[in-house]
Write a structure and sequence with these properties.
The protein is α+β, with helices and mostly antiparallel strands. It is built from 3 helices and 6 strands; from the N terminus they run ααββαββββ. The longest helix is centred in the N-terminal third of the chain and has 42 residues.
Length: 151
């Protein structure tokens, strides 16, 4: 009888660990999906989609050390002041901390900002929180990456 109890305890522990791993994998997959949906919304100039992906109090610190709010981003997209021609992300590193997450990745974009064409590579950090079961980006930071040497 004691052996059976121990076996059930070990089985319960193993199942609970597997359950955590499954939830973690699902959360990581969802965060990658949200990152890709955000990029797609930027390229499509879809301000409405961005309101479902970025928290109302979202901020980004850009490579030139300025801070932009979600409201300003949406306004610039709607006005055509900011136009993404393309934006590809890669090398996503997703880390979970309960109902918070940090995603670090690389981006490669072509855009127009206030009439000026800009193309470049970046490394970015996005901070997410889970609100009402949904992951929302609350803060972002971007740094330019140097062009690779072409020796």
């Amino acid at each position: 009888m004691k052996t059976t109890s121990v076996l059930f305890a070990v089985l319960a522990l193993a199942l609970s660990v597997c359950g955590v791993r499954a939830d973690e994998a699902a959360d990581k997959a969802e965060l990658v999906r949200v990152e890709n949906a955000t990029v797609a919304a930027l390229v499509a100039h879809d301000a409405k989609a961005l309101t479902t992906l970025l928290a109302a109090d979202w901020r980004i610190v850009t490579a030139d050390a300025s801070v932009m709010t979600r409201e300003a981003l949406l306004k610039d997209l709607d006005a055509g002041t900011l136009k993404f021609e393309s934006y590809k992300i890669s090398d996503l590193d997703v880390r979970l901390f309960g109902d918070a997450a940090v995603v670090i990745g690389h981006g490669d974009s072509k855009m127009e900002w206030k009439g000026e064409s800009i193309a470049g590579r970046e490394i970015f950090t996005d901070v997410f929180i889970r609100r009402d079961g949904k992951w929302l980006c609350v803060s972002s930071h971007s740094c330019d990456l140097p062009e690779p040497d072409s020796k």
